[in-house]
Amino acid sequence: MSSSSEALQATARRATGGLPPLLAQAERLAATVVLGDHGRRRAGMGEEFWQYRQAIAGDAASTIDWRRSARSDAAFVRQTEWSAAQTVTLSVDPALSMDYPQQGETKRARAAVLGCALSLLLVRGGERVALAHPALPAGGGRMQVDRIAEMLSISQGRDEYSVPVMPNDHSGLLVVLSDFLAPDEVLVPALDRLATQGQRVVMLQVMDQSEEAFPFDGRTEFRSMSGAISFEAQRARSLRDGYQARLAARRDMLRTRARLSGWSFNVHRVQDPAGTALLWLHRVIEGERR
Amino acid sequence: MLSLGAIGFVTPLLLAALVALPALWWLLRATPPAPVRRMFPGISLLLGLQDAERMPARTPWWLLALRIAMLAMAILGLSGPLLNPASDVEQGDGALLIVMDGGWASASNWSARRQEARQILQRAGRSGRAVHLVSLADAEPDLAPRAAADWLGVLDDMQPMAWAPDRAGFAEQLDALDDIGASIWITDGLGDDGGLPDALAALGRVEVVMPTQTALALAPARFEDGQLVTHVLRAPNAAPQVVPLQVIGTDAAGVERVLDQVEVTLGADEVRNRVAIDLPLELRNRVTRLVLAAPYRSAGATVLTDDALQRRRIALVSSARSGEGQSLTEPLHYLRTALTPVAEVVEPLLSEVLDAAPDIVMLADVANFSDDERNALQDWVRDGGMLVRFAGPRMAASTVGQMERDPLLPVRLREGGRNLGGAMSWGDPKRLRPFPQGTLFDGLALPEDVDVVSQVMAQPDPDLAERTLVALEDGTPLVTARDEGRGRVILFHVTATPRWSSLPLSGLFLEMLDRIARVAQSGEQGAQALTGAIWTPERVLNGMGDIMDVQRLAGVSGERLADAAPAPDAPPGLYRAGVRGHAYNVTDDATSLQALELPAGIASRGYAVRAEQDLTGPVLAGALILLLVDILATLALGGRLRPAARAGMTGLALMLFMGAQDVKAQSVRDDPGAIYATSETVLAYIRTGDVEVDRISRAGLTGLSTVLTQRTAIEPAPPVAVDIERDELAFYPLLYWPITDAQAPPGPEAVVRINTYLRSGGMILFDTRDTHLAGGSEGPGNAQLRRLAGQLDLPSLERIPADHVMTRAFYLLDDYPGRYVGAPVWAEASLAPVDLDGVPFRNLNDGVSPVIIGGNDWAGAWAMDDQGSFIRPVGRGVSGERQREMAFRFGVNLVMYVMTGNYKSDQVHVPALLERLGQ
């Protein structure tokens, strides 16, 4: 394991300090029947006691609970609750636009920390965690967290912007950590696709303060992070209002879509404490479970 | 070199680059400032936005102006700008000829002329040219070329001469000079050019340095109607000015002083201003010269007076030889007593009377002459002599002038006389009638007690009335007069003794004689009076108008004096032939001053008011500052100047501004000079205003301070200059005061301050720096010193005695040399020595002599530059070095004396003290 991933883990552990174990709500059962800590509120394979029922023909004799049966005439079978682990897929934006700002903590670093911390919480709660980019199959336990941390610390895409995509294995929840700055014509269809497939999504927009305040002036040539796109402003100051209006419109769009699809959306700034965002994520994921 | 007003350029070709400025302007206008590049992921939201406000794509005009100014300054700076550029006549090939007029008209501003010549020499020295320096007033100018530095010493010793420069003569000599490349003529701006400019122009470039103000002159003084009359002369086209005119003469003690001073107001364009001065006869007789006071002093502004103005010489002749003991009845006694205070009285024999060259001849009761005497007297009277005759028994008894008119009597006389009021006569003694108006004695007070008992009577001729000056009550004449030729004959019809009348006893008699003496003309006038005699100079004027002793001047023929203006062979001054004196002045009655008119094409300029200054550094520095400002402005325009930096800049600018304010405020609070002077021992010198003198003073005191630090316990801080009019003097133990002719006397406040300083223990070392010019007597600086120090409260002085503390305060000295040796050095007179313990001991006052006065140019000998090498030469070779060493020893002794007072004087007690200790 590289030293940077160790550092990432350490930072993530600090961020998770004091949070109760997170138990993802086990709602979807169909595809991934994996024993987990989440009771499915129905009888099935599991360790937790669920109910006694009268034995019927066909029940194996070994399943009869003799202690309970002894208290009455009928024979009872002891059933356990069907418990299954939820899979949460983390989508941490790999695009180049996350490498901003150039001084101080970048959006990418903040998103990675949040993702790592979240996966730690989830694993501790017995959930399975997967990564969308780069693709990492779902898994649990400390080893999975280590893997996630390592993947996040080396992940960097080549695209200017990226959009959330459907996870490979149908996971219960997709957590998207991104700046959502991709052009509309790319972003909107991607979100539509997620919605039509019924994917449940938690969106956290990670941004730098300067992207909101737009504190620029003078004759400025703006460039994308790869330098592929450039835009020359004669006087940057005069663009501020238009930019901020567009940013607000983008957020409105995201918020509206979240409301319509039953998703969650929030904004996080690099300058804010990471704990706030993690708390919000935790609460939202827990709420999704309820 | 190109010259634009006060600024010139060494390499004007570079200025052609200024043509490129418009192109630069166009380029700068066309190029907008580069945009800032900024990585920004939010660009996806920006795409398609229109910015309503456009940044100016072109450079703002002020930045443009700034950059053009910057480049212009850089171009100007590189082209070598000079402030107050000297003309480039000094540059070039061939020798440089500096011609100075050097006559009396140059005297009033001699320092400025000399400074100008010195600057020219220094510049010529930098370019390494050979130089001829010629004073046109020199009898035999040194025409050899020398290095410029060698002329500096000559220039220092050069003095204006008392005659006019010989321009025409020098123009002829110019042919002998064939190496001249250019010439500069420092002229006095008066008179005819004598063809000199054209002759100089034939040799090469010519530049004429004109004075700002031409000299004034005084016409010879005369008496008119009892007033002293002179004329102030000046060149046409001058501005109005007020000129102080001083009448100088000897006082009763024989000391020369200013008898009277008048302010003469010259209107614009007034070239000849009549000045009339009323003086009592007593003073009038003592007038030796009239001068225009400083700053107009010169030989031309000095008019010497001779016999024509001085006391009348009166010859008294009587026919009777008196015996001893009869003085009160002696015929001439009353005349002699009355006339001696106002005139010079001689009593020759009648036959020799005219040999005494009298202005007035008074004959007391002389009736008969020999033919020779008669003819001589008649000629003398016709030539302007005044003959005053007194009647008496002899005249009454003679038949002179009774039948025909006697040329030596104003009227015809009747035989005998008449007696009044005697025992044998009917009438009473007669009194006087009031004096007729318009006659000689008009206005005199008529006393009541004058009566006449005898008189000689005049024939009642038709013209008797008009000849009568004084008459008795009955109309008979008492005094008659007649003009004879240019002279006049006056007859008193009574005796010069109280025998015939009480007139000689009255005050009226004195006043009448006084009137007669006043109106009498000088015996001889005009050119013919001069001719035929050899006149020997008695006192001569130098160019500044000071009276000098005559040295090795031969006598001059009268024709020379009469015909030609003063020149080296006959300087202006007082000449004497026998008893006759003649004042030979620069001007005569016909003199008028003409402004010098230069031929067309000759360049002229005024004095270089300020020294040339190289502006390259400041201008290039200005360009650099503009460059820095431009950098900041560009940054600010591009938005790259962060707010913090902007705040810092503002703060910096504010601090600079506040700093300047603070310095100003501080100078009001504390006087740093006073703090400096009181925290260290500091030697000080008086700032004279002459740059060179001040420089030498500073360097001299610096050198002395260095030597003091090396050799003694006194370690002075670097010397300071003191402005006598403004600065507090109390901080300085010693003031060095070099005397220059350009200094104004200290004002009243300064006098008070100096006197306080001297009384409270300060010392001033006056240095006239003119021993080399003095030639055994006092030098020209002494008059200056008297003028400057006249109001100071100085004690009586004596030459520093051999046992003065000065001679042993640190070193043992017997002389006080500076750059010059030998002139006496003066200090406060000490008391007579007292014999104490067998040793003569001067019980000096406990203080220090407030002044030391000498003329040895000590600062010149001490002067040391920053590298510690000496500036001015002293003497020659080893003896010169020895002399400099002695000069330093004098300085050490002087400072020791100032610091320790008479401490060393007490050393005489040491033997006695040791003796007592031994017991």
Account of the 3D structure:
The complex is a heterodimer of chains A (290) and B (919). Chain A is an alpha/beta fold and 290 residues long. Chain A folds into 2 domains: 3-29 and 86-289, Rossmann fold; 35-84, no CATH class. Helices cover 37% and strands 22% of the residues of chain A. Chain A has 8 helices and 11 strands. In chain A, strands 6-5-4-7-8-11 form a 6-stranded mixed sheet. The radius of gyration of chain A is 23 Å and the shape is elongated. Chain B is elongated. Chain B is built from 25 helices and 42 strands. In chain B, helix 3 (61-78) packs antiparallel against helix 16 (616-637), helix 4 (110-126) runs antiparallel to helix 5 (148-157) and helix 6 packs parallel to helix 7. A 7-stranded mixed sheet of chain B has the order 19-18-20-21-26-25-24. In chain B, strands 35-34-36-37-42-39-38 form a 7-stranded mixed sheet, sandwiched between helices. A 6-stranded mixed sheet of chain B has the order 7-6-5-8-9-32, sandwiched between helices. Chain B folds into 4 domains: 88-214 and 595-611, Rossmann fold, CATH 3.40.50.410; 218-236 and 243-304; 312-519, Class I glutamine amidotransferase (GATase) domain (Rossmann fold), CATH 3.40.50.880; 674-910, Rossmann fold. In chain B, a hairpin with a 2-residue loop joins strand 30 and strand 31. The interface between A and B is medium-sized, with 39 and 26 residues.
Short description:
The complex is a heterodimer of chains A (290) and B (919). By secondary structure, chain A is an alpha/beta fold. Chain A is 37% helix and 22% strand.
What are the SSEs and their pairings?
The complex is a heterodimer of chains A (290) and B (919).
Chain A: H1 3-16, E1 35-43, E2 49-54, H2 66-70, E3 76-84, E4 87-92, H3 107-124, E5 128-131, E6 136-139, H4 141-154, E7 173-178, H5 184-196, E8 201-207, H6 209-213, E9 220-223, E10 230-233, H7 240-261, E11 264-269, H8 274-289
Parallel strand pairs in A: 4-5, 4-7, 7-8, 8-11
Antiparallel strand pairs in A: 1-3, 2-3, 5-6, 9-10
Chain B: E1 2-4, E2 7-9, H1 21-30, E3 36-39, H2 43-46, H3 61-78, E4 81-83, E5 95-100, H4 110-126, E6 130-135, E7 146-147, H5 148-157, H6 167-173, E8 180-186, H7 196-203, E9 205-209, E10 217-218, E11 222-224, E12 227-233, E13 241-250, E14 256-266, E15 272-277, H8 281-284, E16 287-292, E17 302-304, E18 312-318, H9 333-339, E19 343-346, E20 360-364, H10 371-382, E21 386-390, H11 393-397, E22 418-419, E23 454-455, H12 464-467, E24 468-471, E25 477-484, E26 487-492, H13 507-519, H14 527-530, E27 534-541, E28 547-549, E29 556-557, H15 558-563, E30 573-577, E31 580-584, E32 603-605, E33 613-614, H16 616-637, H17 643-669, H18 672-679, E34 682-686, H19 691-711, E35 717-722, E36 734-738, H20 748-759, E37 763-767, H21 771-774, H22 780-789, E38 797-799, E39 826-828, E40 834-836, E41 839-841, E42 851-854, H23 858-862, H24 877-900, H25 910-918
